From TrEMBL, chain A:
Major place of residence: nucleus
The protein's name: non-specific serine/threonine protein kinase
Single annotated GO MF: ATP binding
Reaction it catalyzes: L-seryl-[protein] + ATP = O-phospho-L-seryl-[protein] + ADP + H(+); L-threonyl-[protein] + ATP = O-phospho-L-threonyl-[protein] + ADP + H(+)
TrEMBL record, chain B:
Organism: Mortierella hygrophila
Protein's name in the database: N(6)-L-threonylcarbamoyladenine synthase
GO terms for cellular component: cytoplasm; EKC/KEOPS complex; nucleus
NCBIfam families (UniProt xref): arch_KAE1, gcp_kae1
Reaction(s) this enzyme catalyzes, per UniProt: L-threonylcarbamoyladenylate + adenosine(37) in tRNA = N(6)-L-threonylcarbamoyladenosine(37) in tRNA + AMP + H(+)
The protein's Enzyme Commission number: 2.3.1.234
Protein family membership: Belongs to the KAE1 / TsaD family.
Main localization, broad class: cytoplasm
From TrEMBL, chain C:
Principal place of residence: nucleus
The protein's role, per its UniProt record: Component of the EKC/KEOPS complex that is required for the formation of a threonylcarbamoyl group on adenosine at position 37 (t(6)A37) in tRNAs that read codons beginning with adenine. The complex is probably involved in the transfer of the threonylcarbamoyl moiety of threonylcarbamoyl-AMP (TC-AMP) to the N6 group of A37. CGI121 acts as an allosteric effector that regulates the t(6)A activity of the complex. The EKC/KEOPS complex also promotes both telomere uncapping and telomere elongation. The complex is required for efficient recruitment of transcriptional coactivators.
GO CC, alphabetical: cytosol; EKC/KEOPS complex; nucleus
Lineage of producing organism: Eukaryota, Fungi, Fungi incertae sedis, Mucoromycota, Mortierellomycotina
Name assigned to this protein: EKC/KEOPS complex subunit CGI121
InterPro entries, per database record: CGI121/TPRKB, CGI121/TPRKB_sf
Gene3D superfamilies to which the protein is assigned, alphabetical: CGI121/TPRKB
Family per similarity comment: Belongs to the CGI121/TPRKB family.
GO biological process, one term: tRNA threonylcarbamoyladenosine modification
Species annotation: Mortierella hygrophila
Any matching Pfam family: CGI-121
Length: 218, 342, 176
């Protein structure tokens, strides 16, 4: 349906294409409709989420957090056109020889921590922080870019931000063994750049203790 | 090997007997008895712990006798007595655990305390043959999206406030629907006659869901919408189901994508709902996947599921010593060490 | 003149753009515009508010999309291109800021679709000025106004980031 597009990722709710747009290579994210949902509800939700994702990206850009620039939003067809960032993911980087050196890991960790601190300062909760959703921009020599805001939302709650960090922590421990030091560095940099970071980090300990959520009453 | 299972964490009292024939690999499983007695409060009311516990106390002995008769079993045939340790309502849980302890002492049997949620999962796996599914556990007290990894049933997502079944039950009370056979069942029947969708709050945060917003909204607005004739009670039931089930299917799909699974197993009382099963099926077929669900004999709380999960643990050498047979209202699914799975 | 395809809407024809400096008939053009003269078939954009060709392409592409779905906020595709350049939803203010004025001396003519030769001929006939390459665009830029209109954070100083900021503002204008 999208002209000259190359499918690069198929997720549970969206397809991601690389396609030409206004003389550039751009990322086009297409959310699809869900057959199981009532059509009216589906339409409402899908377009609302397109808007929500674009808004969170824009909010980050305005706070000067490196995120893909939104080029165009097509709520009729549930599409977001955005900047294509050349670079590798932190996930890929950490398995390269360079990415396994202490110095490189420290630098990346500081970058990530700072970016997340700034993002939480403006009440954007990413919702799906993994090392695949952190890119390293080629043109700047590898500065960290936050991508895929498909599950993001705006929230002031300490709890939501702490869970956001916890999700990343779990992603680190499950995908990258022996990176505890690196995650500590992320939290340190986060603590230095975030406004309410002290409370959030304290909350993170609670979240860890209970393994994410409180007990459910039967 | 035969296990007796006793369940009474909410308003259903269940007694089950299961046999695992250990001479075959895997063991041949036979259900010898699975009987239940449900406490129904009057329409418009929920069940209170005190009354529910009283109900369980007055019926459990007869139920155990009936189950033994149905399975043609004498106490000497039983290897282990399994009971629900939690989660659930304190009073009803302890009333049943007391019976389990007494029987164990009388008959000189081992005891196994079972996590209610794990009971649902193991029974669902046994009945449907699902290998490694993402489990949606939906009942009056629980809403969880679960997947197995490294010896534990891990909770990927859950309700941040009230459970989905609770949300449906409470709306049934607003409409004064009968509690017999179950408020949720009556909502489901009424929803079939509805067609007009009311725009309701839809709250999904990543893998988690929230139902208190939608309940408050529909509770507050229902009287006026019904009085004006703008929506019928059937329309409201339809709208509520369409909305809350979409939330459940969405988070289940996300978990499937996350762990790369193509199977879904729906367990728990709300899991009997045909519309939920149908929606889940549509989602799964979009992903080339498959849905496993059980009927009311197994998805509604029962004793056999407690016997099944208990006997699996018992086969790995696990027993609960008498002094640790206390019950707990809070007992997370991921606290259980699943020794019986690879 | 330069022509670019609209990849997201291949059936709409290309975006044609020509850059003019030393424009002498701005008052005439402005009058034609005000009288909704049918002979004027292309948009005329004030060059000094253009950071990059990309900015024009995005605004024009969006106009082409909205035209197709019948969702133009203004009366014509031409005025829509100008309106789209502005981050503001105020149509009159947007057209005033980004369209040509009586004292405009450098402008960009933009049109979607049609035969390039005919369009070039028409643009050159209508605008009295020097047709120049888009590489001259940098010299026309009014950074003060750009910063003011797009409310660019003073800490944003690099051209690339300024452009991204502008594009973001254009893209998000109608996203509520």
């Amino acid at each position: 349906m999208i002209y000259n597009a190359q499918l690069i990722k198929q997720g549970a709710e969206a397809k991601v294409y690389l396609a030409p747009f206004c003389q550039r290579q751009a990322i086009i994210k297409e959310r699809f409709t869900k057959a199981y949902r009532h059509p009216t509800l589906d339409k409402k939700l899908t377009s609302r989420r397109v808007v929500q994702e674009a808004r969170c990206l824009s909010r980050c850009q305005r706070a000067r957090i490196d995120t893909p620039t939104v080029y165009m939003v097509d709520t009729e067809n549930y599409l977001i056109y955005m900047e294509y960032i050349e670079g590798c993911s932190v996930r890929e980087y950490l398995v390269t020889p360079e990415g396994q050196t202490e110095a490189a890991q420290t630098k990346v960790a500081q970058d990530i921590g700072r970016a997340l601190g700034l993002m939480h300062n403006i009440d954007v909760v990413h919702g799906d922080l993994t090392t695949s959703n952190l890119l390293m921009r080629n043109e700047t020599g590898g500065s960290v870019v936050l991508i895929d805001f498909g599950l993001s939302y705006v929230s002031q709650l300490i709890e939501d931000k702490a869970v956001d960090l916890y999700v990343l922590e779990r992603a680190f421990s499950s995908t990258h063994p022996n990176t505890e030091v690196m995650f500590e560095q992320i939290l340190k940099a986060y603590g230095e750049s975030g406004k309410a970071s002290k409370q959030i980090l304290k909350k993170l300990e609670d979240v860890r203790m209970r393994g994410r959520k409180r007990s459910m009453l039967g | 090997m035969i296990a007796l299972g006793l369940e009474g964490s909410a308003n259903k009292l269940g007694v089950g007997l299961i046999r695992h024939d250990m001479t075959t690999t895997p063991p041949t499983v036979t259900i010898l008895a699975n009987i239940r007695h449900t406490y129904h409060p009057p329409p418009g009311e929920g069940f209170l712990p005190k009354d529910t516990a009283q109900h369980h106390r007055s019926h459990i002995l007869q139920l155990v006798k009936d189950a033994m008769a149905e399975g043609n079993i004498t106490p000497k045939d039983i290897s282990v007595i399994c009971f629900t340790k939690g989660p659930g309502m304190g009073g009803p849980l302890t009333s049943v655990a007391t019976v389990a302890r007494t029987l164990a002492l009388m008959w000189n049997k081992e005891l196994v305390g079972v996590n209610h949620c794990v009971g649902h999962i193991e029974m669902g796996r046994q009945i449907t043959g699902a290998e490694n599914p993402v489990v949606l556990y939906v009942s009056g007290g629980n809403t969880q999206v679960i997947a197995y990894a490294e010896k534990r049933y891990r909770i990927f997502g859950e309700a941040l406030d009230i459970a989905v079944g609770n949300c449906l039950d409470r709306f049934a009370r607003v409409l004064n629907l009968p509690n017999d056979p179950a408020p949720g069942y009556n909502i489901e029947q009424l929803a079939k006659k509805g067609s007009k969708l009311l725009d309701l709050p839809y709250t999904v945060k990543g893998m988690d869901v929230s139902f208190s917003g939608v309940l408050t909204y529909i509770e507050t607005n229902a009287p006026a919408l019904l009085a004006s004739g703008e929506y019928t009670a059937a329309d409201l039931c339809f709208s509520l189901q369409e909305t809350v089930f979409a939330m459940l299917v969405e988070t289940t799909e996300r978990a499937m994508a996350h762990i790369g699974s193509r199977e879904v197993l729906i367990v728990g009382g709300v899991g009997c709902n045909k519309r939920l099963q149908e929606m889940m099926d549509q989602m799964a077929s979009q992903r080339d996947g498959k849905v496993f669900a059980t009927d009311e004999r197994f998805c509604i709380d029962n004793g056999i599921m407690i016997a099944q999960a208990g006997i699996l643990a018992y086969q790995t050498g696990y027993t609960t010593p008498l002094e640790k047979t206390w019950c707990t209202q809070r007992f997370r699914t991921d606290e259980v060490f699943v020794a019986w799975r690879e | 003149m330069e022509s670019y395809p609209i990849d997201s809407l291949p059936t709409s024809g290309d975006i044609h753009m020509a850059c003019f400096t030393a424009v002498k008939n701005a008052p005439d053009l402005k009058e034609k515009l005000q009288n909704q003269d049918k002979s004027l078939t292309f948009a005329m954009v004030e060059s000094n508010l253009i950071m990059d060709v990309f900015q024009l392409l995005v605004a024009a592409t969006k106009a082409a999309h909205d035209n197709k779905t019948g969702k133009l906020a203004t009366q014509t595709v031409s005025s829509e291109i100008i309106y789209n350049l502005s981050p503001s939803k105020n149509i009159a203010e947007s057209l005033k800021r980004f369209g040509i004025k009586e004292d405009t001396t450098s402008l960009i003519a933009v049109k979607i679709g049609g035969n390039p030769d005919e369009i070039m001929e028409e643009m050159s006939r209508t605008v009295s000025g020097n047709l120049v390459s888009f590489s001259k665009l940098d010299q026309e830029r009014d950074m003060t106004k750009l910063r003011q209109y797009y409310k660019i954070d003073p800490k944003v100083t690099e051209d690339k980031e300024i452009l991204n900021w502008i594009i973001g503002a254009i893209a998000m204008k109608n996203v509520q």
